[in-house]
Specification:
Elements (H helix, E strand, L loop, with lengths): L2 H14 L8 H14 L11 H8 L3 H14 L2 E3 L5 E3 L4 H25 L2 H20 L2 H18 L3 H22 L4 H17 L3 H12 L6 H9 L12
Helix pairs in contact: 2-4, 2-8, 3-4, 5-7, 5-8, 5-9, 5-10, 6-7, 6-9, 7-8, 9-10
GO molecular function, one term: DNA-binding transcription factor activity
InterPro entries: GntR_C, TF_FadR/GntR_C, Tscrpt_reg_HTH_GntR, WH-like_DNA-bd_sf, WH_DNA-bd_sf
Protein name: HTH gntR-type domain-containing protein
C-alpha cells in the first residue's frame, strides 16, 4: 500500500469513527504557526511573509499560503493593506473581553476535568505543576511559561470535551502573547504557583465547583489589578502587543 493510499485509508477510518483530523501539509504549517504564536516566537502585529515562513518550515509557499488563509479565517491573522497579513492584535478593551471569555472556558474545563479526569491525566497535571515549581525555583521565566501551557492544556484535555478544547485553543493562541507578558510582570510567576495548587487540589478531590471558581479567579485579570498590568506592558518591550485604538 502506498503512503498516499495509507493516509487516505486513515482519514476514512477517522471519519467513520467520528473524529476529524487534519493531516494535510497546510494543516501542519497552521499548527506550527499557532505554536510559534503561542510561545511568543511570532508576536502580535508581526508581518506574516510567505517566503520567510516557507523557509522557516521547509515547505513550498503553497501550503504556507493555505495555512495563512486558515489563520485569517480563524481570526489569528488579519490583513493590513499593502503590508499583507499580520498576526492579529487586540485593543485593550478587546483583550479584556477575550480574557473574560477565556476565564469562563477555562473554568468550565476545570469543572469538567474534576468530574472526568483519569488517573493517567492526574499524573500529567501533577507533573506540569511540579515543572512550574521547578522553573520558579530557577527563576526561569521561559521554562515556567512552557510548563504553564502544559498545565492548562492538561486540564483542558481532562475535560474530555472536544468542542470546548477547540474553542479554548483558538482563544488561548490569540491571547497567549499577552498572557506571556504577564509572566514577566514582577511577582506574577511565584504568585501563580499557589493558585495552580488550589486548582489542582480541587480537581484531584473531584470538587467541580471549587475547581471552576479557582480557575476563573486565576485566569481573570480583572481580579489581578489590570491597571498595574497595562502599566507594565506599556513601559516594557511588550508595548507593541496592543493595537492602536480607533
Amino acid at each position: 500500500m502506498s503512503q498516499r493510499t495509507a493516509q487516505r485509508a486513515r482519514r476514512l477510518d477517522l471519519s467513520e469513527a467520528g473524529i476529524v483530523e487534519d493531516t494535510s501539509l497546510a494543516g501542519d504549517v497552521a499548527r506550527r504557526l499557532e505554536e510559534d504564536i503561542l510561545r511568543g516566537t511570532i508576536r502580535p502585529g508581526q508581518r506574516l511573509d510567505e517566503r520567510e515562513l516557507s523557509e522557516r518550515y521547509g515547505v513550498s509557499r503553497t501550503p504556507v499560503r493555505e495555512a495563512l488563509q486558515r489563520l485569517s479565517a480563524s481570526g489569528l491573522a488579519s490583513a493590513r493593506g499593502r503590508q499583507g497579513l499580520q498576526v492579529a492584535q487586540f485593543s485593550v478593551a478587546d483583550l479584556l473581553d477575550a480574557l473574560s471569555v477565556v476565564a469562563s472556558l477555562e473554568a468550565l474545563a476545570a469543572s469538567q476535568a474534576a468530574r472526568r479526569i483519569t488517573q493517567e491525566q492526574r499524573t500529567v497535571i501533577e507533573a506540569a505543576h511540579a515543572a512550574c515549581g521547578a522553573a520558579i525555583a530557577e527563576g526561569d521565566y521561559d521554562a515556567f511559561y512552557d510548563a504553564n501551557i502544559r498545565f492548562h492544556d492538561a486540564i483542558a484535555a481532562a475535560s474530555h470535551n472536544r468542542v470546548l478544547q477547540d474553542e479554548l485553543r483558538r482563544l488561548s493562541v490569540k491571547t497567549a502573547p499577552y498572557r506571556r507578558a504577564i509572566t514577566f510582570q514582577p511577582g506574577r510567576m511565584p504568585q501563580s504557583q499557589p493558585e495552580h495548587a488550589a486548582i489542582l487540589a480541587a480537581i484531584l478531590r473531584n470538587d467541580a465547583a471549587a475547581a471552576a471558581e479557582r480557575m476563573a479567579h486565576h485566569v481573570s485579570l480583572l481580579s489581578e489589578g489590570i491597571a498595574d498590568f497595562l502599566h507594565f506592558v506599556r513601559s516594557s518591550d511588550h508595548a507593541g502587543l496592543f493595537k492602536d485604538e480607533a
